[in-house]
Design brief:
about 325 residues; alpha/beta; TIM Barrel; eight-stranded parallel β-sheet; two-stranded antiparallel sheet; about 40% helix; globular; binds zinc ion
Length: about 325
């Protein structure tokens, strides 16, 4: 029985239950801490906010949340532990780096002038998965990779290769960030060519692209795809995300699709107030949109409970190593 690292210890893959494969708790972009007007980070406030935001999802049966926060955009292991304990849900944390554009590549770029950073990042990932993150004793349960829009930079390529090698070594799955659903096939090819197991790869943010041919070109690599930005109308219309999802389910891909929302309730930095006109574009963005709106819409369209269960329970379990 494959074991999955959660922030409170390991569980077997069949204990994961209903899983959201790509969410966040606290999240901050590079440099937020340089903003003198940003409220200072307060872990207890963050914990209260996250627990409050997750309660309703818990009531819908959520058992496992994968916190996709890479180590360079605000990952807080202690916060994850507190939220997991208070809610009684599994939280799986990530090792991994964000995109070159929005992550923290400075240190690695500097070292890359002399050293092989693919080898160094591989060591970091394996260390965080097998021995734990810092001195927290918490082991990472997924590897997060990320690439920018329409291009995989040479820095990102090095990081993706490190992730693939760490996947091969540890068996831990890879979840990815694609920008607006671009570079999915290229991510899959790069990871697989470097030794990653396609059955342990989920190409993320694919719902930012409604081109069915594009989806099929990723699916034919044998990887999972994630519709994990449901509710973010501001980036791409939910209607198109749903239409595309229903199309793929209609031709038999329920066993390759994961659903999530890429939601975070606690933002590091100055408050990010949306203009009044833009507010409806995030009205559904929450931890419960999948349960409250998407699943009922799928059922209305004739998608069976079995298929919903496949996406919410079986696919995450299989991604984590149990067939
Ligand atoms: Zn995310």
């Amino acid at each position: 029985m494959p074991k999955v690292n959660t922030v409170l210890g390991s569980v077997s893959a069949d204990e994961l239950g209903v899983t959201l494969i790509h969410e966040h708790l606290a999240l901050g972009y590079l440099g937020w801490e340089c903003d003198a007007m940003a409220p200072p980070y307060d872990r207890e406030t963050a914990a209260t906010t996250c627990v409050e935001a997750l309660k309703e999802a818990n009531a819908y049966g959520l058992k496992t949340l994968v916190d996709a926060t890479a180590s360079d955009i605000g990952r807080d292991i202690e916060l994850q532990k507190i939220v997991s304990e208070r809610l009684g849900i599994n939280i799986v944390c990530a090792t991994g780096m964000y995109t070159e554009r929005y992550g923290k590549p400075g240190y690695l770029k500097f070292r890359s002038q002399v050293y092989d950073i693919t080898a160094e990042v591989y060591e970091t990932y394996v260390k965080e998965i097998t021995q734990g993150i810092g001195n927290t004793g918490v082991k990472a349960g997924v590897i997060k990779v990320a690439t920018g829009h329409g291009k995989i930079t040479s820095y990102e390529e090095k990081i993706l290769k490190a992730a693939a090698r760490a996947q091969k070594e540890t068996g831990v799955p890879i979840i990815s960030h694609t920008e607006a659903g671009t570079m999915g096939p290229e991510q899959a090819d790069l990871l697989i060519s470097e030794g990653a197991d396609p059955r342990r790869i989920a190409i993320g943010h694919m719902c930012g692209n409604a081109n069915l041919q594009y989806h099929l070109s990723v699916l034919e690599k044998g990887v999972y795809i994630a519709f994990d930005r449901l509710g973010i109308d501001m980036l791409f219309p939910d209607k198109l995300r749903k239409a595309c999802l229903m199309g793929l389910l209609g031709i038999g891909y329920a066993d390759k699709i994961l659903l999530s929302q890429d939601y975070w309730p606690y933002w590091l930095g100055r408050p990010f107030e949306l203009p009044e006109l833009a507010k409806p574009l995030l009205a559904n963005w929450s931890y419960v949109h999948v349960f409250k709106n998407i699943i009922p819409a799928l059922k209305e369209a004739g998608v069976t409970d079995d298929k919903v269960n496949t996406m919410m329970v079986d696919n995450p379990r299989r991604l984590f190593g149990e067939e």
